[in-house]
Every structure is written in structure tokens, then in C-alpha cells.
Design a protein that fits this description.
Blueprint: E1 44-48, E2 54-58, H1 76-129
Length: about 150
């Protein structure tokens, strides 16, 4: 792991020298240059600047996009079918919302009826089971009562 040092002398190592192998450059053959004449000779344009200089050059036509192919006309039947489908979906959605609204309204009315029954039932329960002036039971004033059964008149 560590070099072996004995008595102050450095250790001897074998050294291998690697020399890179040169890669030969690729052989490039020059392609012959062939002059090509344009199909038409472009027009030469000259412009006179305000200071009197004349600039002459070729006019460059801007690149024109390819013409767009004409779209085929859409048939009336296809338009009517599409509009009919959209109308049908709108009606179905409206009926679904209407049905949901009616169901919610019915549930709301049912809850109101139950609430009224609970309130009215509670009021009746208070009347029946409640105390009258702090006394329990039914109060009968015997002195003012008239008992017909026993022929007692007071």
C-alpha cells in the first residue's frame, strides 16, 4: 500500500512508457465546382439616394407560401345534424337540472312539514305535560260545580 522505504533509500519501480498511436488524417477529395446558371436572369434594379449615389442590385422576390387548397363546402345536412345534436344535449342537460331542482324542492317541502310537526307536537306536549301555575293534576272547584248524576246542585 505504501512505498517501502528501507534505510532512507527510495524504492525502485518499473516504469512503462506508453506512446500514443497517431491517427492518420482522413483523405478529403475536393468535389469539382460546377457553375450553374439560373433559369431566368433576374432584373437589375437601381436606386438613386438623396445625396446622388446610385445603388444597383438584383431585386429579390419574397418567398410566397403555397396556395391553400380550397375547402370542400359543408353540406346542409351535416350542419343540421350537428346543430340538432347540440340542441338535444342542451335539452337533456336542462331536463336533468329541472329534475334535480324538483327533487330538491320536494325534499325541502318535506323537511318543512316535518319541522312544523315537531314544533306543533312540542307545543302540544308542553300544554299537556306542563304545570298550570305550579300545581300538579287537574283542578276542580267543587263548590261551583253542578253534579247532575247525584242531583247535587250548588
Amino acid at each position: 500500500m505504501y512505498p517501502n522505504h528501507t534505510h532512507g533509500q527510495p524504492a525502485q519501480r518499473a516504469v512503462e512508457v506508453h506512446h500514443p498511436t497517431p491517427i492518420p488524417p482522413p483523405v478529403v477529395q475536393a468535389a469539382p465546382v460546377v457553375p450553374v446558371q439560373p433559369g431566368t436572369v433576374p432584373a437589375v434594379a437601381s436606386i438613386v439616394l438623396p445625396d446622388g449615389r446610385v445603388i444597383t442590385g438584383y431585386a429579390i422576390d419574397p418567398a410566397r407560401p403555397e396556395p391553400v387548397a380550397a375547402k370542400p363546402p359543408v353540406s346542409r345536412a351535416a350542419v343540421n345534424v350537428a346543430l340538432g345534436g347540440v340542441g338535444f344535449l342542451a335539452v337533456c342537460g336542462g331536463l336533468l337540472l329541472l329534475t334535480s331542482f324538483i327533487a330538491a324542492l320536494t325534499a325541502f317541502i318535506g323537511q318543512l312539514i316535518i319541522l312544523a310537526a315537531v314544533i306543533f307536537g312540542g307545543w302540544i306536549a308542553v300544554q299537556v305535560l306542563g304545570t298550570n301555575g305550579g300545581k300538579g293534576g287537574t283542578t276542580v272547584n267543587i263548590r261551583k260545580a253542578t253534579f247532575r248524576r247525584n242531583h247535587f246542585h250548588g
